[in-house]
Amino acid sequence: MADIRGMTDWEQLKRLLENQDDDGKTMRIDEPALLEHLQARVKGQDTILKDVARLLRLQAAKQQKTRPIANLLFLGPTGTGKTELAKAIATFLFKEEKSMLRFDCSELNGAHSKDRLIGVPAGYVSSEQGGQLTRPVMASPRRLILFDEIEKAYPPVFDLFLQLMGEARLTEQGSGKAVDFSQTIIVLTSNAHAEQIGQIQREVTDYHDMVNSIKTYLAESKVFRPEIVGRIDRVYVFQPLSGMIIAEIALLKIAKLAEQYRLKVHFVAPELLLQALAANEKVSRFGIRELERILDEMLANQLLQAKDQGAREVALEANEAGEVIVVPSG
Ligand SMILES: Nc1ncnc2c1ncn2[C@@H]1O[C@H](COP(=O)(O)OP(=O)(O)OP(=O)(O)O)[C@@H](O)[C@H]1O
Ligand SMILES: [Mg+2]
């Protein structure tokens, strides 16, 4: 029998195998499917969604071991979809919302916040437990990591951010294990200088010009250290939501509420939406955080009644007094 060792150039084969496109770490993203998923959840931020979908497709397919898939900075008023977009990305790419790790940097402002993230140094009690940032990533490396209000973080935590965004590698204190972040997406949010940023947002109408002006402003006003700004792939400025967009979000939330009672809604009277928007505006001058509660109060009781009467599909109508009428239709 011929010696198979002589049958091919094994060195070349080895090199070819090593350079194969798929090392199990790169990811092929279906951009239109991603965009559709994001658009179904996040309303009124289309320019951002399109750019995110494209950027993530291009970045995730790259083989790069020394940086995260993407480092993103989300700015803009409260309640405009920043966290919602982060969740939507995590759900699509990493299969479940739970794959997202979220840290509130206003809680990372003490001397021990670094230990919390990457573990307690060796020799201390609980140094075996590891860090709240490093352990989950060690266990499953495909994650979206959200740091809210980064401007409030304690300076040593900033150094961790730099390392995370620049090298995609953090070493756990205590265990000494190196943790690979090259399959994560890092999202930072900030409310620093919100007023000035809001003003630029109102004054500069072209989206790209506006983002550029804000980047210049961030750099000049030293809101963040320049190394941080330098490691961010994209700055996205979320737009305030208009009445029509809030109405759309209200519809999403109504569908979600009905779904919790295993009901489908196929029509909602505009008068009801208008009522919800008015109630929302009264209580939450900023954003739409109260909208869910308002809709719950308006609709939950009647939805459950309809359910108990055997309905599976309903229309939400309004009578002359503007009261909700739930009409079963299936
Ligand atoms: N653009 C949007 N599209 C769909 N839902 C939205 C949008 N903006 C906000 N919401 C809804 O409002 C709630 C709050 O939004 P979200 O948590 O995304 O706000 P945020 O921009 O992260 O605000 P903050 O700066 O206060 O963290 C969420 O429950 C979400 O469902
Ligand atoms: Mg948020």
Descriptive keywords:
2 domains, five-stranded parallel sheet, Helicase, Ruva Protein, domain 3, Rossmann fold, binds adenosine-5'-triphosphate, 330 residues, binds magnesium ion, single chain, alpha/beta
Topology:
Blueprint: H1 10-18, H2 31-41, H3 46-60, E1 70-75, H4 82-94, E2 100-104, H5 113-118, H6 134-139, E3 143-148, H7 155-167, E4 169-171, E5 178-180, E6 184-189, H8 194-203, H9 207-220, H10 226-231, E7 234-237, H11 243-260, E8 264-268, H12 270-283, H13 291-308, E9 313-318, E10 324-328
Bound molecules: adenosine-5'-triphosphate and magnesium ion (MG).
How would you explain this protein's 3D organization?
By secondary structure, the protein is of the alpha/beta class. The chain folds into two domains: 31-237, P-loop containing nucleotide triphosphate hydrolases (Rossmann fold); 243-328, Helicase, Ruva Protein, domain 3, CATH 1.10.8.60. Helices cover 46% and strands 15% of the residues. The protein contains 13 helices and ten strands. The strands form three sheets. A five-stranded parallel sheet has the order 2-3-6-1-7. Strands 8-9-10 form a three-stranded mixed sheet. A hairpin with a 5-residue loop joins strand 9 and strand 10 (324-328). Helix 2 runs antiparallel to helix 4 (82-94) and helix 11 (243-260) crosses helix 12. It is globular, with a radius of gyration of 24 Å. The termini are far apart. The model has no long low-confidence stretch (mean pLDDT 89). The structure holds adenosine-5'-triphosphate (ATP) and magnesium ion (MG).
